[in-house]
Amino acid sequence: MSIDSTQNHINPVRPDPSTGSGLKADVEGWAGFDKLSPNGIKNSSNSINNCLLEVSDLQVAYGGIQAVKGISLQIAPGELVALIGSNGAGKSTTLKTLAGLLQPVSGEIQYDGNSLKNIAAHQRVSMGIALVPEGRGVFARLTVAENLQMGAYSRNDKSEIASDLVRMYELFPRLAERKDQLAGTLSGGEQQMVAMARALMSRPRLLMLDEPSMGLAPLMVKKIFETISDIAAQGMSILLVEQNAKLALQVAQRGYVMESGAITLSDEAKELLGSEAVQRAYLGG
Amino acid sequence: MEIFLQQIINGLVQGSVYALVALGYTMVYGILGLINFAHGEVVMVGAMLALSALTAMLGWGVPPLLALLLSVGLAMAGCMALGYSIERIAYRPLRHAPRLAPLITAIGVSIVLQNLAMMIWGRQYHSFPTLFATSSHVIGGAIINDIQIAIVILAVLIMAGLMVVVHRTRLGRAMRAVAENQHSAQLMGVDVNRVISITFMLGSALAAIAGLMVSANYGLAHYYMGFLLGLKAFTAAVLGGIGNLRGAMLGGLLLGLIESLGTGYIGDLTGGFLGSNYQDVFAFFVLIAVLVFRPSGLLGERIAERA
Prior knowledge:
The complex is a heterodimer of chains A (285) and B (307). Chain A has 285 residues and is α/β, with parallel strands linked by helices.
C-alpha cells in the first residue's frame, strides 16, 4: 500500500507482522463507532500502514529494573488486541507508558500518526487514549456519578456528556442504582464497572484495560468480558492486558505474548489459543 | 454568665480566623500530604500587604470603603502569587522526595518569609488605621463590635463558598480526585500540577483574608504574627482531622472556643495561680490530646478503598 495523503475514505488495516497477511479492511466496525467519536476520524494523519497505535522498540525502566526490553506492537482501528503474559512480564508497565504515566528509556510510540513523545498523560486523554488501570483506581470518596463525570473531565460538550452518562447507566444498570453512593462502598466488580464507564466517558479511540478480571468473582468476570466484547463490537480499538490468557484470547482478534519484558509470540488470537507453547505456559493445558 | 457569653463571642471570632487559616493547611495536606508550615507566614504577608496598601491609599485620600476593598484584593492577589511561588519553587522539586525533605523545606520557607517581611516592614508593630466609626453592641451583658460581626459573617460566607466550589464544580471535583489518586486523576485528563497550584492559590487567598481579619480585630500587624497563628490553625486542622475541609472549619471554631473559654476561666479554676497570659497553652494542650487520643481528628475518618 502506498502513502496517499489525499485519500479520504476509511481503510484501516489489521497489520500482522507474523504472517504479513493482515490487509483486511474493517470499515463497518470502525464507522459504527463514529457516534462515540466526537473528533471524527482523522484521515489526514494516516500512517503508512494505518495503525491507530504503533509501538516500536519500546524500552522502559522501572525503579532501576528494565521492565520492558524493546517491544513492538501495533493496533489497527477497531481492533481488540490482547497482551498476555505472566505476572511481572511488563504488561502493566507497557500500558502505563502508553498512557504517559511512565517515561520510556527509548523507543517510539506513534498514535494516529503522531509521536507521543513529550505528551503528558493528561494531554493524551483528550487525544483519545484511555487507560483503566490495574486495581481500577476509582475515586473511593467520590460518588459513582462524580467518578463518571471525572471521566468526561477532558470534554466540554455538556449536553453530549449528559447523554453519554445516560448511555453508561444503560450499559451498566447496576451503576445507575448506585450513582449517588461513594465508589469506595461498591464491590470489586461494581468498581470495575465504574472504572470502565469512567474511561468510556472520555470518548476514547483507544481503550486500554489492565487486568479487568483481577480479583473478581467468576460471574462478574463473565459480565465484564461480555461488556468488553460489546464495546469492541461497536468498533472501539482495545488493548487488553490479562493474566487470564484464555479469556483474553477468546475475545481478542490478535494477541501478543509477553515474557520478562519482551514479546515472544504474536499471532491471531485463535492461533495463539491453539498454540502448544501458549497452552503449556498460560492455559494450564 | 456575662463572662461566659463574652468568651463565646471572642471564641467564635477567633475561631473564624483559625478556621480560614486551617482550611489552607488542610487543603494542601489533602492534596499533597504535605504540612505547609509556611502557611502562617502567608497570613502575615496578607496582613502586611493589606495594611500597607490601606495606609497608603488613605493617605492619598481614597475613600475608606474603596481603599479597604482594593487592599483586600491586592493582599489576596499578592498572597496567591506567593502561594503559587512557594509551591513551584520550594515544594514541586521535592514532590517525590522522602517526606521529611519537604517538611524541613516548609520550615525553611517560613523562616525566609519572616525575615523578608522583617526587612520590608521592620520589627515594629503596625497599627491598623481607623476606617469607619465602629460601634459596639451589648448582647446579654457581652460586647461585640462591628468588626467582629463582620469577621464572623464574612468567614461563614467564604467557607460556604469554598464548600460549593469543592463539592459542586468541575474544579472542585478535580481537586478531590487529585487528593485521592493523582495517577487516576491524570488518566482522566486532569493536569495535576495545575490543580495543585490552584489549591495553593485558593488557600493563600483565604490566608490573606484571615490576615486582614486578625489585624483589623486586634488593630495590629507584625512580621512575627504568622508564626503562632499558623501553629494554632495547624492545631485546628489536626483537631478537625487534617485533610478534611469540614474538619478544618469545625476544628477552627472549637479551638477558638476552647482557647477563649480556657483563658476566661483559668484564673478562677486555679485560684488565681495561672492567669489569662497562659492563653496560648490551650491550643497546644489540644494538639497533644488529639495526637494521643484521636490522631485522625474529629472528622478524619476515611473510607477504606476495597481491594
